[in-house]
Protein: N5-carboxyaminoimidazole ribonucleotide synthase
Organism: Flavobacterium fructosi
Amino acid sequence: MNYFSSDFKLGILGGGQLGKMLLYDTRKFDIQTYVLDPSDEAPCKIACDHFFKGDLMNFETVYNFGKLVDVLTFEIELVNLEALAKLEDEGLKVYPSPKTLKLIQNKGIQKDFYIQHSIPTANYKRFPNLKSVVVDILDSKLKLPFVWKCTEFGYDGNGVKVIRQISDLDNLANVECIAEEMIPFKNELAVIVCRNPSGDIKTYPVVEMEFHPEANQVEYVICPARIDDKVSEKARAIALTVSEKFNHVGLLAVEMFQTEDDEVIVNEVAPRPHNSGHYSIEASYTSQFENHLRAILDLPLGKTDSKVAGIMVNLVGEEGFSGNVIYENIEKILGWDGVTPHIYGKKQTRPFRKMGHVTIINENISEARRIAEDVKNTIRVISDKLNN
Amino acid sequence: MNYFSSDFKLGILGGGQLGKMLLYDTRKFDIQTYVLDPSDEAPCKIACDHFFKGDLMNFETVYNFGKLVDVLTFEIELVNLEALAKLEDEGLKVYPSPKTLKLIQNKGIQKDFYIQHSIPTANYKRFPNLKSVVVDILDSKLKLPFVWKCTEFGYDGNGVKVIRQISDLDNLANVECIAEEMIPFKNELAVIVCRNPSGDIKTYPVVEMEFHPEANQVEYVICPARIDDKVSEKARAIALTVSEKFNHVGLLAVEMFQTEDDEVIVNEVAPRPHNSGHYSIEASYTSQFENHLRAILDLPLGKTDSKVAGIMVNLVGEEGFSGNVIYENIEKILGWDGVTPHIYGKKQTRPFRKMGHVTIINENISEARRIAEDVKNTIRVISDKLNN
């Protein structure tokens, strides 16, 4: 199949920042792209060849869009699965497969999958709704504390809560959920795996998510993780197994915990380019986005090693600011070696909205870490208006 | 000035592959772009915010386009200078300045400029037309052999010819030209300088153009050049001087010869992103395109050092093929470590048409050189039709 400067059509469901970064590589290879997104202001709207506005959860919309393209992929999991399944049944190449996505979209099913394939993960129990969780606690069948997770539509910590006392359940949605054992961990790690339909498979180096000591928020994604090689090998091996068991095609970001006794257990996965791989644009031989593209087109996978150490800092809207975005001090951080801001293109900021990220690369990881902290303490995503 | 996700408008004259690669960075920074190009199929047409079709040599077209934007730059020198000069007089920021471009567009004026500023360059004589060259030869005022160069509108070896006997002048255009002394050289070198209006200035490492032994054609651009450090320092120092003397803003690619006695002399310059800097996308801390953008917006310049060794191979249309382009064996070279093809997006190939380039990066330059040769011998730019 000739993908390059040809009539071949790649369809992408979702037109957000992940799609936007994927489009750098479709442009580089001159691959024709069709993008579907509900927003008129989607970051992908320019740089794709054909943009369509529509609801990603609507069967007809997704099905009809899929009929226009030769290969279909997505940059967000919240898409209409039935439409994808029908398209795949009708012979369209849909990567990742809806069969895989079905196993991942629901965290209860995802956890069951790990157990079935003896992939290490924290103990859990599934519940049809919040009420039955309460009942189990009252019957002391469920011990406090535990981690509550709604099984669907959670993202960015949304839909996850640590329950230390029964009252912590107040105001949580009465939806299907799981209760997960709290695992004390040393590090939160992630490994991105890429795999093509021919079965070529590669892992990126293990990255480390460094959390803010007080606020339970990832502050830095650090590549390579500053951990023992044995733990790295273990993490990469587990990530490979997860990808193979899912028979996954494309990118799979495997999030893991390094326990206090240096065991590695799987937390959850994302079947797409992932925040923990953004550093790869500057630091890796092949970015995660290029490798996603190579994978879904069944091209050979690119080298996943790093050229230099890379650290990523997310740019999220400051509390107290809403309106036209201003990146305060961005000129200042641009003056520092190896600092590259990525601005996603959202014109309006809101508290905690993901507006972009900054990559810091350096031959020396400690130096990169020092600069990353300066970046974090210098740039601010504010607006021309204060909230009232 | 707030450039990022704002109403700021950057205008780019020319929508070819250089503009296309520049747009990766305007997208990354979410800077609004306006592009003017004569072709409906310009590679920039998608990925810019607003595309205008029009003649770059037409005063009205360029002037009116310039009136739409806040800062104006170009990716090709063949633009209407009078329009740029009027826009600059009226207060528009035009980078590089038409004053600089005026000194560069005409090779006779460019050579005079080097002499005025004691910048080493080959001896030459200016001629108003071809006839007067013939007269000088007959009067033996001009010795054979020499290099004939038309002063304007030459590009890619076009408009340059080695004259060994008077009959070599046959069929050359009877236009303003120069006759330049033939300098035997060891190496053809280039240094890209970036400079912003505040006067911050940086040079990229010296690159080496490796020529095909028989065909007098650049085959590989190699960074860093495999030359003595003293020669590198000399080349970078000369490039800095050239940029400062031109009071240049943006990128200036300075092409030089390393003579047999290790002198470095200037051949010619290009006031824009340059083929000799394409390797920087993969190999450098900051690509030449990002640094062009930083320079013309008077932002701090990015680090110009390399992360790894880089080699570029141009992809030009094979002789004998015209029509819908096919990149034969591209899947094969994608399987090799550190190999990245860039497809410019021209749907039709023609003999010697620049269709793309391939970058090879590696920690070891000899290994990169070996892979580059394999790339060169493997990928072919052909078409679905043979010429007759």
